[in-house]
Every structure is written in C-alpha cells, then in structure tokens.
Amino acid sequence: MSPFHRFLLLFLSLAAALPLAAADKETEPTNAEEAAAKKAAAEAKIDADYAALVAKLSPEERAWEEVLQAELGNFYLPIHKKQKVAGQSNAWDFIQDDPALPRVLLIGDSVSRGYTQAVRKEMAGEANVHRAPANCGPTATGLKKLDIWLGDGNWDLIHFNFGIHDRKTPVADYEQRLDEIVTRLKGTGATVVWASSTPIPTDWKEGPELAAAIEERNAIAAKVMKKHGVATDDLFTFITPHLAEVQNPADVHFNSEGYRLLGRQVAKSIREELAK
C-alpha cells in the first residue's frame, strides 16, 4: 500500500470517529456534579412515571402501592418503582385474589423475597400467594410491623421466617421475640408454618462464626415451634446439598436456580399443610 493510501485510510478512520466522540461529549457526564444531576433527573422521571401509573390503578391496587411506599424503604422502593415503570413483575405485585382459592402470606427477609415469585408460579391455580410489604428483617422489626404485614388478617396459611437478620441477636431475646410472634400469628386463625433459615457460608464477609449462629437459632426456633405445635419447612436441610451450585459466592443469597428450588420446596410445604 502506498504512503498516500495509508494516509487516506488514517484520515477516513479519524473522520468517522469524530461524530461518535462529539456524541459522547453530549451524553457522558464530565464530572461528579454532572453525573449526580443526570442520576437525579433519571430518578425524577421514574418517580413521575410511577406516580402516573399508580394514578390509573384500581382503588385496591392504589392502596397496596401506598402501603409499599410507606414500608419498602430507601433501598427496595426505588427498585420497585423502576420495575413497575418497566412493566416488570416482582415479589410485591398486587395479588387479585381468586375467592375460590386459599390465601397464603409469606413473611421473611430477602431470601424469602427471592423465592416469592417461584412459589406463586408453583402454586398458580392452587392458592393466592401474597407477600409482606417489606424485607422483614429481624424479630424486633417483626414485633413492630406485624399488624401492618398481616393486613386484614384473613389468611388461611402464613409461612414465615426470622433468622439471618437475627444472627447477632442474643439467643434469649431471639427466643422470646419469636415466641411472641408465633402467638400473634396463630391468633389470626391461620395455619402457621415456620421456615428454617438457610445457611450462611463460612467465607461470608462477616466471619465464619456466624454460620454456626444460624444453626443455633434454627435449633432455638425448633424448640419454639414444638411448643406451639407449628410445622417446620426445613429449608436449611433442603438446600444444603445444593449450595455449591445455587448459593452466590461468599453470600447468603441465591442464584435463580436456587430460588426456583426453594420456591418449589416452599410450595410443597404449603400444599401439604393446606391439605391437612
């Protein structure tokens, strides 16, 4: 190739790149202040679109969204809004009950949130599967928020868990709070099912000693459930053989296959208890 042709090719490639570079300058933030402004504008648009969407809902659906706005908090509420605006389903979808089917309530932390939709899929046509409007956290939060989560209290079955968020709760406090929560749940007249807490990996950032803390709290919970005659859905034992394939590395959460497996097991447990 002659020097002229090399020069021509170089010139053409640079010319082609110029419009892209100019466009980049128009869209990419040049400093932290500009980046923050772009983020704020994007969030404001999502808020506006979400408000417009909620305004068109039925009164029952609007009321549910208002509960979520009050309860989901600064982490989960923006995620929920973004998903709703995008037309995506999530664990906190409004459930339009089929009056011919039993009503089921799931209470639990982010692991429970992760398997909620899998339970709904497994139990389609068998039960109306609702979820508490929160990442339910520790037993201390449960005692404060239980009345909100129970809503009208008209449940056929309540499947619940508290554990991972109680990993540092003194064992005596954990037992006392769990005992009170079970008493209040049984007071609704629903069948109550306890889900044992899923394992904490020994290489989790908070230290290997917390893996043993979950087993200790599962043992305490088993004692409380025996006292109250509450059935246990032993998710700890169920998922343990699959951890290498389905639990995220150094994390208490699971991949999509893990939540699918957990959802199938939860649905199985609910189905068995409803049949009694």
What does this structure look like?
- The chain has 276 residues and is an alpha/beta fold.
- It has eleven helices and five strands.
- Helix 7 packs parallel to helix 8.
- The longest helix has 25 residues.
- It is globular and about 55 Å long.
- The termini are far apart.
Summed up:
This protein has 276 residues and is of the alpha/beta class.
Number of helices: 11
Biggest β-sheet, characterized? 5 strands, parallel
**Approximately how much beta-strand content do the residues carry?**
5-15%
Give the strand order, joined by hyphens, for the main sheet: 2-1-3-4-5
N- to C-terminal distance: 84 Å
- Identify the overall geometry: globular
Helix content, binned percent: 55-70%
What is the H/E string? HHHHEHEHEHEHEHHH
Low-confidence stretches: 7-25
The tally of strands reads: 5
**Averaged pLDDT:** 91
Rg (CA only): 24 Å
Global structural class: alpha/beta
